[in-house]
Design goal:
Elements (H helix, E strand, L loop, with lengths): L1 H13 L15 E6 L5 E6 L5 E7 L3 E6 L5 E6 L5 E6 L5 E6 L4 E9 L5 E8 L4 E8 L5 E7 L5 E6 L5 E6 L21 E6 L4 E5 L8 E8 L5 E7 L10 E4 L6 E2 L4 H6 L6 E4 L5 E6 L4 E6 L4 E7 L3 E7 L2 E6 L3 E4 L5 E3 L3 E2 L4 E2 L4
Antiparallel strand pairs: 1-2, 1-28, 1-29, 2-3, 4-5, 5-6, 6-7, 8-9, 9-10, 10-11, 12-13, 13-14, 14-15, 16-17, 17-18, 18-19, 20-21, 21-22, 22-23, 24-25, 25-26, 26-27
């Protein structure tokens, strides 16, 4: 593979080949940050058959990555609170650019490209002013920062593009922190998470928050179906003895829907959902709880649980070709049905990022 990559890189340099696409690195389906047995950190490309397309070094532990929609390029984000992200050429492993958060900011480990890949958006914290921000980066100019706008809340974590192609949805977790206090949560009694929809220029078009009794349910992760249904994953910051719903859906302009599940299941998830995915049709939502060592699948048409699978340290999850795929910190890559699975020597980190275009 390295020989082929070197050959392709040489041809590209001479202008004899068009710009590379994900097909030039084997058309991987997913990206994941991981840790090797030696303790090194890497970004891994994973094929549909769960074999590795590539394994590229990272300078520190990663959290999530954003995959360029066309060319084999990924932005790897450091685990929060990180103040930089690396743009990695997945064809040759070279670092093409480094994104540095402005003074007084840090990244939250997630970002999203526009549909054509010409702009990227990053979730950030302006910690001196205790507000969330979205950074705007011009990809064609080498990831030059060209703007920013308020996220509509505190602690924006995951961000995604809406199917319309001209809007974003942002999970504002609602938790205030400051580097001087480490990861201490400073506003739990008054926190107010929300889900915010905004255009690319920062105009807020819709915003929804959990009901007041669930104001400590931090909206952290999200996934979007082709019809615009947004699935949300939450992490409870209140009394650990209190059992609350942790997963729901929302459609812009509508009310917030929380899935119906037995209290015993919410208790088993220990107030923590690590990742979420939704099928293209929006009929099924898959979630993981590494604290509860469990993956849970919900049916959006019936608003209930359809499947639960026990898996040690499970966190990454994605939906591809009707199959739900999960990864774990124990090196497991598997469909939840168990029909296809493999064991890697890697410890996979929080997220299994789907590459939607090759």
């Amino acid at each position: 593979m390295k020989t082929r990559r070197s050959f392709l890189t040489g041809l590209l340099a001479t202008g004899l080949l068009p710009s590379p696409t994900w097909a030039d690195v084997g058309a991987p389906a997913f990206l994941s940050a991981a840790k090797t047995p030696s303790g090194a950190f890497v970004l891994v490309g994973i094929n549909l058959d769960f074999s590795e397309a590539f394994r590229l070094p990272l300078p520190a532990r990663g959290h999530a990555a954003a995959a360029h929609p066309i060319r084999p390029e990924a932005v790897a984000f450091a685990r929060r609170p990180g103040n930089y992200a690396l743009v990695i050429d997945c064809l040759n492993g070279e670092i093409r650019a480094r994104l540095d958060a402005p003074q007084g900011r840090h990244f939250f480990g997630h970002g999203a490209f526009s549909a054509q890949g010409d702009v990227m958006f990053t979730t950030e914290k302006d910690y001196e002013n205790a507000q969330g921000m979205i950074g705007v980066w011009d990809v064609s100019s080498g990831y030059k920062r060209i703007g920013e706008f308020a996220s509509g809340g505190i602690g924006p974590h995951e961000i995604a593009q809406m199917p319309s192609g001209d809007a974003l949805v942002i999970a504002n977790g609602g938790i205030e922190t400051h580097p001087d206090s480490g990861r201490t949560k400073l506003n739990i009694p008054t926190m107010r998470p929300n889900l915010t929809y905004a255009t690319f220029d920062g105009t807020i078009t819709d915003q929804i928050a959990p009901p007041s009794e669930l104001h400590r349910n931090s909206i952290r992760h999200l996934a979007v179906s082709t019809d615009g249904t947004v699935a949300i994953a939450m992490q409870w910051q209140g009394d650990k003895q209190q059992i609350v719903p942790l997963v729901g859906t929302h459609t812009s302009g509508d009310t917030l829907n929380m899935f119906d599940a037995p209290k015993a299941l919410w208790r088993e998830m220990q107030g923590y959902v690590g990742s979420i995915a939704i099928s293209g049709t929006g009929n099924h939502v898959a979630t993981t709880s590494p604290r509860g060592n469990i993956a849970v699948v919900f049916d959006t048409t019936r608003n209930n649980v359809t499947d639960t699978v026990s898996m040690e340290d499970v966190c990454g999850v994605a939906v591809q070709n009707g199959q739900i795929i999960a990864t774990s910190g124990q090196g497991l890559i598997t469909t939840l049905s168990g029909s296809v699975h493999t064991r890697s020597d890697l410890q996979f980190d929080n997220h299994l990022v789907q590459i939607r275009a090759f």
